[in-house]
Design goal:
With 307 residues, this protein is of the alpha/beta class. It has two domains: 160 residues, OB fold (Dihydrolipoamide Acetyltransferase, E2P) (Beta Barrel); 124 residues, Response regulator (Rossmann fold, 3-Layer(aba) Sandwich). The protein contains nine helices and 15 strands. The strands form three sheets. A five-stranded mixed beta sheet has the order 8-1-2-10-9, covered by helices on one side. Strand 6 and strand 7 form a beta hairpin. The termini are far apart.
Length: 307
């Protein structure tokens, strides 16, 4: 598929988001048939591999810096990072880059070639086998023309390359609740990314509030329905296998005994489409991932609503 055709399709296919479907950009890391994927809404542009300047003493998975669209952007050697090829400096310098946007920043990932964009319902995407997820940052797997597609967790990979620690701000301390911890209902947190779940666990434990953490919306919905009372709050990722966050929020608002529970959509994806869709499904707020202070304020407000 031509790069221009991929770019034109991104806007056309975007209309399905929010209906428990996802648009996946399928691509190759080498000359094999193995397919990988990323949510199309994280992709700003697909372009030929640009010239770059190396960064001395940097992680070898970081190729260097390139000047793209008026910004200095880090180039991540994705095939080498996942053990598929030698470093880019040792192989033929060809291919394309995925110019992506998440964490409110732009990142470029070098790949071999793009295959196409496909629709998938979230219930057609399964959690990765444990053996696979232990070796590769993968959030889910699906199939395309009888081939296995691995949906990559680029956020976790980027955190590993940059050395970002899974810590929360030193100013985040136990909340003043006026109640014993065991007397509070739990916070329900949902995310398919292992690094995000670990971050949420550290944050909520530091805040000293009870919590339950799940990998997808279906697990979380079952847990909410099994609680004797409403949860304190729900913090949910938006893009997840089995049941996405949009569908989870709708189910809570329309088909649960806790339609007024405070809900925060928690996403690394930037863009106005998320704001619009979050409003449509009636979440209370959109919080960007890893924003410990905003999550703390949200939980404090949820506790205040109990009084």
């Amino acid at each position: 598929m031509a790069q221009g055709e991929v770019a034109r399709n991104i806007e056309r296919l975007s209309r399905g988001l929010g209906s428990n479907q996802v648009e996946l950009l399928l691509f190759h890391l080498d000359d094999s048939a193995q397919l990988y994927a990323i949510n199309v809404f994280k992709v700003r542009e697909i372009m030929p591999l640009p010239a770059w300047s190396p960064v001395p003493r940097s992680d070898p998975r970081l190729v260097g810096l390139a000047h793209l669209r008026g910004e200095m952007i880090s180039l991540i050697d994705l095939p080498f990072a996942l053990g598929r090829t030698p470093p880019l400096t040792e192989r033929q310098r060809e291919g394309v880059i995925l110019l992506t946007e998440f964490f409110r920043h732009t990142h470029a990932f070098c790949i071999d070639r793009v295959e196409r964009i496909v629709y998938r319902a979230w219930d057609e995407i399964e959690p990765p086998p444990e053996a696979l997820s232990a070796e590769t940052p993968v959030t889910g797997v699906t199939r395309y023309e009888d081939r296995l597609v691995q949906i990559l967790d680029l956020e976790s990979l980027l955190m590993d390359i940059t050395g970002t620690e899974l810590t929360v701000e030193g100013s985040v301390t136990a909340l003043e609740t006026g109640r014993r911890r065991e007397a509070l209902p739990p916070v329900i947190a949902v995310d398919d990314s292992l690094s995000a779940r670990r971050f949420m666990e550290k944050l909520l434990d530091q805040l000293e509030v009870p919590f339950q953490i799940y990998e997808n919306g279906q697990q979380a919905l079952r847990a909410i329905r099994a609680l004797p009372d409403c949860p304190l709050a729900v913090i949910t990722d938006l893009e997840m296998p089995v049941m996405d966050g949009y569908s989870l929020i709708r189910q809570i608002r329309e088909h649960s005994s806790c339609p007024q529970v405070p809900i925060a959509a928690n996403s690394s994806i930037s863009g106005s489409f998320n704001d619009r869709l979050v409003a449509q499904v009636r979440a209370d707020t959109l919080i960007h991932k890893w924003d410990a202070r905003a999550l703390t304020d949200f939980i404090q407000q949820a506790i205040s609503r109990l009084d």
